[in-house]
Amino acid sequence: MSGSTHKGTLLLTAAQLWHAVSGYIAFVVGARILGRDDYDGFVLVAWTMTTLEIFVVEGVPRAVSWWTARVSEGAAGIARRGFFLTVLVGALLGGSLAGLAPLIAGVWREPDLVGAIRLSGLDFVAFAGFAVLVQSVNGLRRYNLQAGVWFLYSTAKVLAIVGFLRLGWGIEGAILGYIVASSIGSLGAAVLAGPHVARFRGRRLPDARRLLAFGAPMASFSLALMALVNVDLWAAKRVADDDGTAGDYAGASMLARSLFFVFKAFGDALFPAVTEALARGDTRRARRIARDGLAQLSCLLIPVCGCVTGAAESVIVTLLGSGDWGGGGAYVACLAPSSVLWTLTAVFAALVAAASRPGRVAVMLVALLVVETFVVFAWADVSGPMGAALGSLVAAAVGCVGTGVLARRLLGAIVPWSAILCATGAACVIDRAMRLWSPEGWLVFCWGGLLFAVALSALFASGVVSAKRRL
What we know:
The protein is built from 19 helices and no strands. It has helices at 3-52, 54-70, 75-108, 114-120, 122-126, 128-139, 143-166, 170-192, 194-198, 208-239, 245-263, 265-279, 283-310, 312-320, 329-354, 358-383, 385-411, 417-436, 443-462. Helix 11 runs parallel beside helix 15 (329-354), helix 12 (265-279) runs antiparallel to helix 13 and helix 16 packs antiparallel against helix 17 (385-411).
């Protein structure tokens, strides 16, 4: 992996880490203020909003990144066209969500959430400027700017959500926090990234049709992926008893899904680098970048999963401040590994898209979504929320294998089997060590961090992570 791509991967992962931590803070405060009875409603609205937001984030903006990586001299014009198309998509999506809000709330058996669902639609338009400019600098491989704007947005988000929750504005106040943060993120992107993008005023630009031709399948597979990650949450809500079980599952989901939202940043960094290499006809370099990135990802992501599964109940109780949430620990044993597999699926999908084949992965993931929805809801009807978690794990394994095979056919031998196997072994050791003994309270994070550091050092010393892939 080249030095710029290596540095960019770490910068974006750090930005995504803060994004996940800030999201955790918001969800933890929400859990403590709203309580178990209302918290699952907040999680449902928030996850649904962020899932549909994929149309805004991963559609036309991702096409902006792809085209900018190939035609960097036209970045300003590409961004301008992408912005107007993204605003249009966001407005249509927000209007549709407002109209369907009563139906969605009825499916959830939560009529009081209609107002929050409708309000969430405004976030799609507020997010447009952020989404386009972040992907513009991504295509230019200015990862420092991209990471900086992400840090700004994440900080604004946690401050706004926590502030409105503490004012007593409830679920609608929390959703308003997202909208305020998206507006600040778009403004920050205009100030920080806008001037850099504006320097590239070349006339060689793709028209709106070509942006949509690439963006539509990108949005489709990204939306399908987010739905695949979250469909078990909706199934668990449907079958949960009125004893706080839905809240327990939401707490477990919050912990497990952090792996996905932190480490999928590897796909964001690899996407433009692989795109550029393939545009130059250098397939060997593209293959090397992909393989090295996947080796880095495996050696970071998989051992962290061992930390999460080994002390799930203790971590959830510590974060949410009450032993009442301890029941969620049992679900993490399925949800954390499924998040690892969904993360690998997301990175494989990004590599396939970089190879100009987003339509193939879109068809695959949409078909898998149909199957997973049936399996998860049917399994949940038989085994309750645990059935939903098991169904998600099985679907994640299928998705990971399917997208991995497709990526390998397009790019060659990119799967770092030795790194994956050694990292899996390290994760099993960490999980067992934490189950045998873990300290109480916040010290559990220190213990987990120490075990992770030891495992990472062992992986580096073994040569699984070579000097060329230095973490």
